Amino acid sequence: MAIPTKPRISVIITTFNAPDELWLVLVGYQMQTERDFEILIADDGSDSRTAAVVERFRNSCDIETHHVWHENDGFRKCEILNRAIEQANSDYLLFTDGDCIPRPDFLAVHLREAEPKRFLSGTYNNLPESFKGLITEANVRSGLAFRLKWLRTNGLPFSSKCLRLVRNKTFTSVMNRLTTTRPTWNGCNVSGWKSDIEAVNGYDERMRYGGLDREIGLRMNNLGIRGKQIRFKAICLHVDHPRGYMNDEDLQRNLSIRNDTIRSKLTRTPYGIRRAA
């Protein structure tokens, strides 16, 4: 009997009751040039519409796709992320959000740039709310949605951030070296070794919305695992939307946890994948 092989990379996608956005994201992964991967949908309590999207995707392609779900009991993104980490079959994990549509070379870039004791720090390319409805399945499949000229023609204001959408290897390499933005663990577009993530015990499950991703990156830094900037190479699109789940109380609590991680130089949280007895 043949021994099952591990996928080269596990893609962990967080979502909550955004089935239309998730479908476009999954279409983006269906179009990837890299084919040796699995998908885990880290679902923070969505209703049956999300399960239907996952099943539709499974029926449309042969990409191994797992739906990791728990009941809706408020914002528990860190908990469902930790459950997805436990179920991931690859030694290398990529984290992103269920409304961040990947360019076809997205996974290939992450795998090409991966290094021992490093994590890769990307970001999303934010589009105005007016692009909701303009970004369609057809132009994700064709690649049109990722072309700067098309985006500008359809209302994307010009800024220095548009330079991230320029497809030129020499240019993107230079820009990643020149950027003054520090490489941090950004949950919309970040990857790292499963063993490193387990070493810091994954996400701190006390945290709610607001910088929860950055905190795990701080623990990695304290352990000697450094970030590497790929924001001009690994491209995904995100259509802006209201964030009604933001509140100052959660932000302040998260900031307190992050400050403690920095002050105490913590490398591991007791509130992560493995809870202290």
Task: Describe, in plain words, how this protein is organized in 3D.
With 277 residues, the protein is an alpha/beta fold. The chain is 36% helix and 18% strand. The chain contains ten helices and ten strands. It has helices at 19-30, 48-60, 77-87, 106-113, 137-142, 148-153, 169-178, 194-199, 212-222, 248-264; strands spanning 9-15, 37-43, 64-69, 92-97, 100-102, 118-121, 125-127, 189-193, 226-229, 236-239. The protein has a seven-stranded mixed beta sheet with strand order 3-2-1-4-8-6-9, sandwiched between helices. It is globular, with a radius of gyration of 18 Å. The termini are far apart.
CATH topology: Spore Coat Polysaccharide Biosynthesis Protein SpsA, Chain A
**Total DSSP E strands:** 10
- Derived structural class: alpha/beta
Query: Strand order within the widest sheet?
Result: 3-2-1-4-8-6-9
CATH H-level homologous superfamily name: Spore Coat Polysaccharide Biosynthesis Protein SpsA, Chain A
* Global shape: globular
- Distance separating the two termini: 39 Å
Q: Number of helical segments? A: 10
The largest pleated sheet is described as: 7 strands, mixed
Return the domain count.
1
Low-confidence region ranges: none
Helix content: 25-40%
What is the helix/strand order? EHEHEHEEHEEHHHEHHEEH
Protein name: Probable two-domain glycosyltransferase
Keywords: Glycosyltransferase, Transferase
Pfam family, one: Glycos_transf_2
InterPro entries: Glyco_trans_2-like (IPR001173), Glycosyltransf_2 (IPR050834), Nucleotide-diphossugar_trans (IPR029044)
